[in-house]
From TrEMBL:
Its cofactor is heme. It holds the Pfam family Catalase. Keywords: Heme, Hydrogen peroxide, Iron, Metal-binding, Oxidoreductase, Peroxidase. The keyword Nucleotide-binding does not apply. GO terms for cellular component: cytoplasm. This is Catalase. Decomposes hydrogen peroxide into water and oxygen; serves to protect cells from the toxic effects of hydrogen peroxide. Residues 7-394 form the Catalase core domain.
Length: 488
């Protein structure tokens, strides 16, 4: 099959795509050879900056189908009728590794879902774990630096990681999850997803409830042993990408049951009074016994992207994207991410990234944003400012019918260290693991801990002891076997 004629990006036919214009047969080359210059310029810019976190990912399109009525809690139109379908895009990822890292590394997995609703894009940007290492976004850049490379050696450093974790006991719940078998899921299809943060829903009456989102895999949970994860990293570092793409290509569409936990502000206040746990703390879960799951719908992935760069690498999601009938919460990590994600996309992809097909909403858009790089939808001759509409000074809530959010306390820098309970829920997680899973946890922790100083080991063991005495004892035994000496 013959190829179409080569042109420049402006559509101008190219006379010769094999030879540069030169001064004589041996050169030098001529600056006027625009095709050569354009070709090299574009080649040099083929890679947009990779994500600082979640750099390596896989994506697919699908649909969300409502199976249960949620109208008593939200007026969002995508939930307006049982059986209603909404187009979706889901990007999976590892968190700490670079774009070329292995899919099976011990790491949380990103689980970022975009719903293309008739009221705009709703982005639920979560992970495969219901909690995270931190409760305040001001620590996030420091934490991520510990997961990257040592500035001198350019090597991953167990010392950096455990120095941070051992001084931040709030991380223990997620550390326990990470070093269990859940830290190495068997591909993307066999893991749960979570919104992780607390969000809110608002109904037609302007009533707010708080929710946590859960995506429970219908394929069943499967995890890799540490040995298998290491082996596959060498044999097929793109294991999860290959598995997801091939499953969809053969019609084996992965599905997740979508559920929510729901609580009123009064119910959360009573729960906090009873447990001492801040319900908006990202290092904590809402126990299902206190807040049972309510099924909402089913998410199915059924279409692979045609071009990875255009549709996965340039996908730009942000938790700030919520639609009418939805809102946020006082979760400090969420509040930081509402700014950070969109700001990162402005830098990484560009000012007008929302106009790219994978990011563009499936509904009309009208605003006064203009210009900037690649402003290919620039408003034409329309007025480039919004006409001022004077109004009264009464409280109008937060927009789209969401009621005003009551604030409590004086503005200040609040440090919860030493007062928050960072150990009970981590201990609860440890105690639900069977004996074999507990031993895997001990062994997985002993590997990197054996590379750090005794001072750091002692701090981290102290956290394990507070979660459960058997937790600390098990890690000590595994370390003794690994290091060949006592670490008490």
């Amino acid at each position: 099959m013959s190829q179409p004629p080569i042109t420049t990006a402006s559509g101008i036919p190219v006379a010769d795509n094999q030879n540069s214009a030169s001064a004589g047969p041996r050169g030098p080359l001529l600056l006027q050879d625009f095709h050569l210059i354009e070709k090299l310029q574009h080649f040099n810019r083929e890679r947009i900056p990779e994500r600082v976190v979640h750099a390596k990912g896989s994506g697919a399109y699908g649909k969300f189908t409502v199976t249960h009525d949620l109208s008593q809690y939200t007026k969002a139109k995508l939930f307006s009728a049982i059986g209603k379908e909404t187009e979706t895009f889901l990007r999976f990822s590892t968190v700490g590794g670079e774009k070329g890292s292995a899919d099976t590394e011990r790491d949380p997995r990103g689980f970022a879902v975009r719903f293309y609703t008739e009221e705009g894009n709703w982005d639920l940007v979560g992970n495969n774990t219901p909690v995270f290492f931190l409760k305040d976004g001001i620590k996030f850049p420091d934490f991520i630096h510990t997961q990257k490379r040592d500035p001198q050696t350019n090597l991953k450093s167990a010392t950096m990681m455990f120095d941070f974790w051992s001084k931040a006991p709030e991380s223990l719940h997620q550390v326990t999850t990470l070093f269990s078998s859940r830290g190495t899921p068997d591909g993307y299809r066999h893991m749960h997803g979570f919104g992780s943060h607390t969000y809110s829903l608002i109904n037609d009456a302007g009533e707010r409830v708080y929710v946590k989102w859960h995506f429970l895999t219908q394929q069943g949970i499967k995890n890799l042993s540490a040995a298998d994860a290491t082996r596959i990293a060498g044999e097929d570092p793109d294991y999860a990408q290959r598995d997801l793409f091939n499953a969809i290509a053969r019609g084996d569409f992965p599905r997740w049951t979508v559920s929510v936990q729901v609580a009123t502000e009064a119910e959360l206040a009573a729960w906090e009074q009873r447990t001492g746990w801040n319900p908006f703390d990202l290092t904590k879960v809402w126990p299902h016994g206190d807040f049972p799951l309510r099924q909402v719908g089913v998410l199915e992935l059924n279409r692979n992207p045609l071009n990875y760069h255009a549709e996965v690498e340039q996908a730009a999601l942000s938790p700030s994207n919520v639609v009418p009938g939805m809102g946020y919460s006082p979760d400090k990590m969420l509040q930081a991410r509402l700014f950070a994600y969109h700001d990162a996309q402005l830098y990484r992809v560009g000012t007008n990234h929302q106009y790219l097909p994978v990011n563009a909403p499936r509904c009309p858009v009208h605003n006064q944003q203009r210009d900037g790089a690649m402003a290919f939808a620039n408003g034409g001759a329309e007025q480039n400012y919004h006409t001022v509409q004077a109004g009264g000074s009464g409280v109008r809530g937060l927009g789209n019918g969401e009621p005003a959010l009551a604030l409590d306390g004086a503005a200040g820098l609040y440090d919860p260290r030493g007062t928050d309970d960072d150990f009970t829920q981590a201990g609860n997680l440890f105690r639900v693991l069977d004996a074999a899973e507990q031993q895997n946890l001990f062994d997985n922790l002993a590997g990197p801990l054996s590379q750090v100083s005794d001072e750091i080991i002692a701090r981290q063991l102290g956290h394990f002891d507070k979660a459960d005495a058997a937790y600390g004892a098990g890690v000590r035994a595994a370390l003794k076997k690994k290091k060949g000496r006592n670490v008490d």
